[in-house]
């Protein structure tokens, strides 16, 4: 059985991913949350199973599938019950690595894309800096041309996979005076002299994910580290951000649906004043709103994904999908916690974890406010 926009092949893939996630990831969610970390083996296993390269061509070790395969992966990863693990994997599959395929040379693809698809190289994405988050064109990390390469100095913050990564897709300024046209992309190995993980940040949620602050001090990288054309980094990272936002939206709304299902089941079972709480009108209406809003956000995600799958560049729809799923998922996680009452707030139940993890979507990869700015501009304002 398949339903729009998926085919029976997508549903077969979904069943395979679901079996892996429920057997090898979900049982460890609590343990990894307590450790504040998860093993790199997760990437190795995903690579072995072919899940890290679903839509890349077979010549690079990919599965040769379409973009909707990536959506299936993001949706099923929500079943691992750890937002941090799902986010780390999404950074690899849909954020840090796609620019290598889209803008990389054959040599870069051999050196980085193929091992990334195999799960042998873990990637991180270095955009955000202490003084440049939403305002990407304000990045201050510099790459200065020298003989045979570039010397990079600067700092990145909030970098997912920041401690464990083998390589970084990096945004740096190659021309101080050229505004957004003075930005370029690089791919750098994290064992390059001058690359340093300064610290791993503590966070409210996504606690299994290692979020690093990284410094670069006189870090020399060869000419071959330039990814795409010099000066086109801002456009290229803007392209990357579309995929990042859509995959974030897809995973988030799948997580919200899981929370809704848990809340619905609890509302049928938990009794107060002689009846199940779902029979109290206010709770019933909460659940009705949750179901409606999840459905609306889900359809918007699928609409945007179908446009991407057709080769379009739907910035407006992706921005709307990111904004709506973030707000809906946050409301759903809060209502779910409310429906579970004290049990929802207790650490012994996973409800609070979803509530903490979900909050990030309204900030990461472009905040709600930035999404509204983009949509507003596209409406001619
Ligand atoms: C757990 C986590 C993981 C992350 N992973 C990565 C990663 O792997 N790689 C990476 O590069 N980054 C990563 N980020 C960074 C993330 O993308 C940024 O935090 C985000 O883009 C916002 O930037 P900022 O935190 O600097 O906030 P700021 O840009 O300082 O914004 C602060 C506030 O001002 C608002 N604001 C800013 N500009 C405007 C405007 N023009 N109009 C209206 N309001 C505005 C914002 O919406 C926000 O509410 C991660 C962040 C977190 C917390």
Provide a descriptive summary of the structure in words.
- This protein is α+β, with helices and mostly antiparallel strands and 381 residues long.
- The protein folds into three domains: 8-122, Butyryl-Coa Dehydrogenase, subunit A, domain 1, CATH 1.10.540; 124-232, Butyryl-CoA Dehydrogenase, subunit A, domain 2; 234-378, Butyryl-CoA Dehydrogenase, subunit A, domain 3, CATH 1.20.140.
- The protein has helices at 8-25, 29-35, 41-48, 67-77, 83-96, 98-103, 106-118, 233-269, 281-309, 315-345, 351-358, 368-378, and strands spanning 123-126, 142-146, 149-160, 167-173, 183-189, 195-200, 211-222, 226-227, 271-272, 275-276.
- It binds flavin-adenine dinucleotide (FAD).
- Flavin-adenine dinucleotide is lined by residues 91, 124-128, 133-134, 158-160, 203, 206, 211, 360, 363-367, 369-370, 373.
- Residues 91, 124-128, 133-134, 158-160, 203, 206, 211, 360, 363-367, 369-370, 373 line the site of flavin-adenine dinucleotide (FAD).
Q: Helix and strand layout, with pairings?
A:
Blueprint: H1 8-25, H2 29-35, H3 41-48, H4 67-77, H5 83-96, H6 98-103, H7 106-118, E1 123-126, E2 142-146, E3 149-160, E4 167-173, E5 183-189, E6 195-200, E7 211-222, E8 226-227, H8 233-269, E9 271-272, E10 275-276, H9 281-309, H10 315-345, H11 351-358, H12 368-378
Parallel strand pairs: 1-4
Antiparallel strand pairs: 2-3, 3-7, 4-5, 5-8, 6-7, 9-10
Flavin-adenine dinucleotide (FAD) binds next to strand 1, strand 3 and helix 12.
